[in-house]
Design goal:
This protein has 4 helices and 4 strands. The protein is an alpha+beta fold and 150 residues long. It has one domain: Molybdopterin cofactor biosynthesis C (MoaC) domain (Alpha-Beta Plaits). The protein has a 4-stranded antiparallel sheet.
Amino acid sequence: MTDLSHVDEASGAVRMVDVGAKPLSHRRAIARGAVLMAAETARRIHDLPKGDALTTAQLAGIMAAKRTSDLIPLCHPLPLSHANVELTVGEGRVDIVAIAETTAQTGVEMEALTAASVAALTVYDMAKAIDKGMVITEITLVEKTKREVV
């Protein structure tokens, strides 16, 4: 278990990683996800009984990125300098790309993944009244970068 940063080597207990001695770095993460649905649902995604699913999901994803440390117990609260979620309608699907950026001592991959996940959940919530067969899938980290702050 010593390879796990959130596990204390001596006791095996979970812990928040101490990043206090690490230098500040500009960090960026990109995550993606998808919601698979009936083709008719995808065609109606802007005009559902609850409203425009894409606009609502974009806002929900951005808000979720900002609240990641409230949702995942050992995540550090980060001052995000940028968060964005883009949703694209395809044939029978909505594709989601979430970006999170910060200048901090730890990465923002959990914020990007949380944004993509919550955006997908929001699309699902918005369209569930007309499509009971939707599937949330492909939630994955696409890229993470770190560059020194000068």
